[in-house]
Amino acid sequence: MVNSPQETLNDLFAALSDQTRRAILSQLLENDQTVKQVAEPHAISMAMISKHLQILGRAGLVRQIKRGREKICQLEPDALFVASRWMQGFGQFEDQNLDALEGTLLDLGLIEADEG
Amino acid sequence: MVNSPQETLNDLFAALSDQTRRAILSQLLENDQTVKQVAEPHAISMAMISKHLQILGRAGLVRQIKRGREKICQLEPDALFVASRWMQGFGQFEDQNLDALEGTLLDLGLIEADEG
DNA sequence: ATGATAGTCAACCATATGGTTAATAGTCCA
DNA sequence: TGGACTATTAACCATATGGTTGACTATCAT
User: Fold this and answer.
1) C-alpha angle A98-A103-A106 in degrees, rounded to nearest 5
2) Are residues B49 and B88 in the same domain?
3) Closest to B77 (Cβ–Cβ): which among A10, A84, A91?
4) Which of A106, B31, B32, B79 could form a disulfide with B60 if both were Cys (CB 3.0 to 4.6 A apart)?
């Protein structure tokens, strides 16, 4: 079941619309963590953390790798790029300039094409 | 009642998590529209469009100006910048690199400041 | 004044979400 | 083997959301 681009954006933005989930992403930016470790700073149940991680997983923002009885959670920041790209359609703010820049940079060979 | 930064991001991302609302933003990117005009391409009731516009308004993405019996809806793209900025905290994806690169390129004279 | 038009509000429905606690499935280890 | 630990699932609750229809307010035009 491959999601449509619209559904992908729905899931992405919905995943980002909760502070706990954004905090989890920040934690995972520092380093990979087990579910337990992810839960630690938050005053909510493990069950809820598990659900949040599911939502982040559905959005493609977090990957989980089973290791023994633990599960390692890793950030997948490329998913954010999709959302960022969508936003760049809305000209006036500075990212747009960066977007325009990308083509130039590719031409100049200063960056690599990594179309996800 | 000033929203906390977290609540601001909640509202922003939640507003973006619905395709109808994203479509409305795209419409308003083209030109300002009355509520009626906003509703036209969508197969849902005016009441629902009104609600969507409320949510977009709460997120700071759309402003409404009353003109006679109509209400003109205008895009406020600066709000997107807040969300975009938040995303840029997540280093690994290329915007960040582009951002860092921009200064270098300016130094090299390969691009002009604030180019379109 | 009357009617048509633009927009919002209220009541309602179904479903999703953030949260809980309790139960369950795996895994590690003494 | 049995207990401790990690993580998910199930059942439940309250609230929010996307949607409807119908009533209502305000404005425009004849």
Assistant:
1) 110
2) no
3) A91
4) B79
Contact A101 B111 (CB under 8 A): yes
**Contact B67/B81 with Cβ under 8 angstroms?**
no
Residue B109 Cβ < 7 Å to strand D: no
Determine the average pLDDT of the residues in B83-107.
56
| List of chain A residues whose C-beta atoms are within 8 Å of the C-beta of residue B9 | 16-17, 19, 22
B86 CA to centre of own chain: 14
Reference A60, options A91, A83, A43, A42; nearest CA is A83
pLDDT tens for each residue of A32-61: 999 999 999 999 999 999 999 999 999 999
* B62-67 and A70-75 beta bridge pairing: unpaired
Cα distance between residue A114 and residue B28, in whole Å: 31
Using the structure, give the distance in angstroms from the CA atom of A69 to the C1' atom of C28, rounded to a whole number: 8
pLDDT in tens, A54-100: 999 999 999 999 999 999 999 998 888 888 888 877 754 444 444 44
**List of chain A residues whose C-beta atoms are within 8 Å of the C-beta of residue B116:** 97, 100
Residue B115 included in any domain? no
User: Is the domain of A44 the same as that of A93?
Assistant: no
The answer to whether residue B100 neighbours chain A at the CB level (below 8 Å) is no
